Every structure is written in structure tokens, then in C-alpha cells.
Amino acid sequence: MAPEVSFYDYIIIGGGTAGCPLAATLSESANVLVLERGGSPYENPSKPDKGNFFPNLLDVSPSSYAQEFTSEDGVYNARARVLGGGSVINAGFYSRAEPEFLKQAGLNEALVNYSYQWVEKKIAFEPPMLQWQSALRDGLLEAGVLPNNGFTFDHIYGTKIGGTIFDGEDHRHTAADLLEYANPYRIKVYLHATVEKIIFETKVFSRTRAQGVVFEDELGKKHWALLTKDYKSEVILSAGALGSPQLLMLSGIGPSQQLKKFGIKVVMDQPMVGQGLVDNPLNVLLVPSPSPVELSLVSFVGITRFGSYIEACSGISFTPSWSRSVAKALAAILNQTEQSSTKLFQEGILNPESLLDTRIRGGIIFEKVKDPISSGYLELRNMNPRDNPKVTFNYFQAPEDLMKCVHGVKIAIDAVYSKSFSNFRYEILSAKALLELIVNLPLNQRPRHLTSAFSLEKFCMDTVMTIWHYHGGCRLGKVVDRDYKVLGVEALRIVDGSTFTSSPGTNPQATVMMLGR
């Protein structure tokens, strides 16, 4: 039970992918408090494992690991709400950032490498490459995503096997495991602790200074955690690309007009808080298979030179209602095909769910747009820190982003129809049928064009989803300086993906953990 008032050298808001390694590191020489609004991933140790990836993301119960939201663009999304953050609910792929990202962030190369290794020693593994993943990787090579770079954590053009945070038994290892590095006598972690606001000291002729936070426990009781008088002591926001800008605004730092609208006392007018929020657009193909497929999440990636990443998973479980949607859409498409005597058609019509059963017999191929130019913003919806803010990403506002998607989806289609992948696709299903299947699924709330299955531009726009790599909102150079200190405020830093100007590497978790370290 947390005391009503307590004092710490560092108060970290958010025990997520950045917050856990950050807390472990600081506890080596200081007293640290971590406030995490979610619960523990260790309560039910098998729940975060590989087979539960989609069920966990689609779980909408109040105690779920993922809090769902829908952006103003009509795209379903989620944010983590658990110790370990996004590393508890993601697809597990572990890959380092491209050198340009690190250079742009002004990070020390030796320290970066040391920090990545510190993370990798504890939670990164080489994934198994079984039949389906191997066939698709070979298909990508056939489609021209060359060379074959084998297994590496590094970001290199071509096709490579990356790391994974799942071990050989499909058990997930998360950022929360990095707390094993912490000094247990110098760290306190409170779960179900929701920070309401950061408290500031404002004196005439001196800069505003963070003093501590007010947080509420599971029972709704308020607590005050305050900084010690040590000159180094700080409040550090690690609440993610939605939580960090939202909390800054709730604490009085943000666009003054918006704060005044909610009656929030303006501590500092900072119009850039909540701006420059970006989500990498994701588009998918769902490919039913005539042959059995293994359960796999992302094991390899195709890194193209034109700014698109291709990844895939197979044999995953959906919820029963999702399975029915997929089966129904597939049956409708098969109904239109002439070769109705094929095995797939008979299976699909007589028992559409035989294709899915509890696990999908087939795979999902993702195309992610790298470094989208289109960007959006975040605004407060209300003053409740538990609620999601209002988020707009403006997907494909820039035509360059749309071109990357079109090019990437073409490459994914070429890989599906390659010789290497022929055992895992039905001849009867044309590329148009695969596009139509996606168009007919309730993947988002966006309207559909009649030509979605004929025009890749329309397909990208109509069926866009998220890969949960959204970032920005407290950008480096706009809200924080090169040392991640909030501009114009003392004793307040932000260390998480909200500071990023682009998403690092193919999947950001490795770099977010490295940054925390």
C-alpha cells in the first residue's frame, strides 16, 4: 500500500517499454518510484504468450493489457496498460534502429550498442524459421527484396531474420523482465497507480520546476509522490505517445487555448505538445492455405529501398466473432468463382470455419510504410487521465506515403504468387480475390470505394490499419531538448516514443528499451 506522501530521487510515470529499463538503470544509484496504471504481466504467466497475441489485443475488459481506442480517421487502435507496456502485447519482433535514426537523435554510438546488448542479454532470441515463414521469406527474395541477410539484429536492406522476445517455448519476455537488473532496495513499483497530474513550483524570476505528482490507487485514494531536495532529482514521463502529451496537458503544459477550454491552469503555453503525432500505415493480405501452417508471429522482415517493410504471421488465433467474419467474407468471394468444385470452395461453403477453426489455417502478410510524411495531432477529450485522448493521424494525406503503400502491397502480392510460396496458397484465389477478402472485412470504420479491390491506391486508403508504432506528440527539438528535458521546465524529462520524429527500425521496441537504458 502506498503512503499518502512519499519522497524519491526519480519518479517515473509509466512502467512500460522505456520506463522499466530506465527505472532499473537509475536504481543503481538513486531511489526510484515507478507508477504504472496497469497490472502485472506475471499474474497469469501464460497470458502474454505467442498463441494469445490477437485475443489479448482484442480483449476489451477493464483489466485487459490493451486499452482500445479508435482514431478520428476511423482506424481501430490500442495502447498498452500493463507493466512492460507494448512489449507485453506486441508481435515480439526485435530489430535495432537504422544508423540514420541514431545519428538524427544525436545518440552516442558506443553507448547505444552497449545499451542494446544489455537488453538483448535478458530478452532477445533467434526465432525458429519453420515452413510457412521460410516459404514466404523465399518468396520475398524471389520478388526482389535482396539480398538474403540471414539472422541479424541490425537494420540492413534486403530480407533478414530478426530477433524475437519469445523463447523456444513460445513464452514472452518483456521490458518488465529488465527490472530484474534493478537494485531491489532502491526501487518501488506501484501498479494500478494512475497519475492525475504533475505538480509544479512556479516562482517569480525563476524557471518552473517539477516537484512531484498526484496519483490515485486502485481504490480511488489519492497519494502525493514528491521529489527529494537533491539537485539531480526529476519527474520522468514514460507514458508513451498518447500518455505523455496527455499528462503534460492535464498538468498545465500545452496549447493554452485547449487547456483553458477545460479550465486547466496554464503553467506554460506550449503549442507543440500533442503535435506531430504519426502512425505508420499498415495494410494486410490474409492468405488461406491448403497445407497446415505453424503458429508464428513476425520472424523475418523485408526491408525495401523504397520505404516499405514486409512482415508476416501464421496460424494465429482470432476471437470466435472475428473467425466468423473472415469465414463469411471468404465464402462470399468463393461463391462468385467459377471453379466451385475445388476442395477450398466445398470446405468454405459447407463449413467456412473449417479454414479457421480455433487457429487460422493460413497467414497474414503486413505492409508497413516507413517514415510517413503525413502527421496529425492529439487533443484532450476530457480531464480524466484514464480515458483516451482524441487522436487524428491523417493517414495517406501525403501522396508519397500512398505510393510507398502501393509499391509495398505489389511486392507482398508478388511474394504470395512466387514459386517458393506455392504450397501455401490456393490456385483458385487470384490477387483480386485476396484484396476483395480484406475489403469485405470490418478492419476499420472507413468508407469503402467500389474500386477498392481493383485499385491499390483505393485499397491502401480504404483498408488502412495500425501496426501500433505511433509516435511523436512531444518531439525532440519541439517539446524536449537533446537530453530529453522538457524545454522551459526544470526537473522534468520525457523518455519514450512520444519524442521520436520517426519510428526506429522496422519495429521500435528494441530502440525504446535501449533509450530507457
Short key terms for the protein model shown above:
25% helix; signal; 7-stranded mixed sheet; 517 residues; 2 domains; alpha/beta; FAD/NAD(P)-binding domain; Cholesterol Oxidase, domain 2
Structural class: alpha/beta
CATH-defined architecture of the largest domain: 3-Layer(bba) Sandwich
The best one-word shape is globular
The name of the CATH topology of the largest domain is FAD/NAD(P)-binding domain
Average pLDDT metric: 94
Q: Helicity level, as a percent range?
A: 25-40%
Describe the protein's architecture and organization.
With 517 residues, the protein is α/β, with parallel strands linked by helices. The chain folds into two domains: 1-126 and 171-272 and 381-389 and 477-516, FAD/NAD(P)-binding domain, CATH 3.50.50; 281-369 and 396-463, 2-Layer Sandwich (Cholesterol Oxidase, domain 2), CATH 3.30.410. It is built from 13 helices and 26 strands. It has helices spanning 19-26, 53-58, 99-104, 109-123, 131-142, 240-250, 256-261, 320-336, 343-350, 399-416, 431-439, 456-462, 509-516, and strands spanning 5-8, 10-13, 32-35, 66-70, 76-80, 93-94, 148-151, 158-161, 163-164, 187-190, 194-201, 208-216, 222-227, 234-237, 253-254, 268-269, 275-277, 281-288, 300-303, 308-314, 362-369, 376-379, 390-392, 465-466, 489-490, 492-494. The strands form seven sheets. It has a seven-stranded mixed beta sheet with strand order 7-8-19-20-21-18-24. Strands 1, 11, 12, 13 and 25 form a five-stranded mixed beta sheet that branches.
